[in-house]
């Protein structure tokens, strides 16, 4: 809202002249201006089922392709095995022997670890050994304290069992 008012006091000729010329400037105006960007904004609405399908279908397709990739790699190996059977046989034997070596080295490593822990302190031997056998149950078969044939205590693995009739049976390791 704007309001301009000029008052000229006096009775002289100059005062009258000013009143007549400046009186036209006495104005009152009111301006109301509202600005909004509502017309520019998108109007929200619910999505239709087709729009949901259009947005979710690519995601579903990507997930299925990720799962299918595994089978595609298997198929690639099977096709190569069909055309190159000798190479496939060498590959399978290599992987099988590698797996056997890993298993054997793991068992040997665990046997050495258990023996080392048992020898650390004389008073802690059996309790550490029992703890290791509880933690790794497969170690029980490697940690027998006597021969499986005759029952001789603490028989080394490399020695022939003394009570075996043929002398060919070896005692199981004690540790």
TrEMBL record:
Native organism is Jacana jacana
Q: Does the keyword Membrane apply?
A: yes
Q: What Pfam families would the database entry show?
A: DC_STAMP, zf-RING_DCST1_C
What name is this protein filed under? Answer: DCST1 ligase
Tell me the PANTHER family matching this sequence: DENDRITIC CELL-SPECIFIC TRANSMEMBRANE PROTEIN, E3 UBIQUITIN-PROTEIN LIGASE DCST1
Q: Give UniProt keywords alphabetically.
A: Ligase, Membrane, Transmembrane, Transmembrane helix
Q: What residue stretches are annotated with the E3 ubiquitin-protein ligase DCST1-like C-terminal domain?
A: 145-175
Its membrane topology: Multi-pass membrane protein
Localization: Membrane
Q: Name one GO molecular function term.
A: ligase activity
Principal location: membrane
Q: Which InterPro entries match?
A: CSR-E3_Ligase_Protein, DC_STAMP-like, DCST1_C
């Amino acid at each position: 809202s704007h309001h301009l008012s000029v008052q000229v006091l006096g009775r002289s000729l100059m005062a009258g002249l000013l009143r007549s010329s400046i009186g036209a400037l006495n104005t009152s105006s009111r301006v109301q201006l509202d600005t909004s960007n509502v017309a520019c904004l998108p109007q929200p609405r619910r999505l239709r089922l087709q729009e949901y399908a259009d947005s979710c279908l690519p995601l579903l397709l990507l997930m299925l392709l990720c799962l299918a990739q595994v089978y595609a790699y298997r198929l690639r190996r099977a096709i190569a095995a069909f055309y190159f059977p000798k190479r496939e046989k060498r590959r399978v034997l290599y992987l099988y022997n590698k797996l056997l070596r890993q298993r054997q080295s793991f068992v040997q490593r665990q046997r050495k670890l258990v023996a080392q822990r048992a020898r650390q302190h004389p008073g802690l031997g059996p309790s550490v050994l029992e703890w290791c056998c509880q933690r790794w149950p497969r170690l029980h078969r490697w940690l027998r304290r006597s021969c499986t044939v005759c029952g001789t205590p603490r028989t080394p693995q490399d020695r022939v069992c003394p009570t075996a009739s043929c002398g060919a049976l070896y005692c199981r390791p004690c540790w």
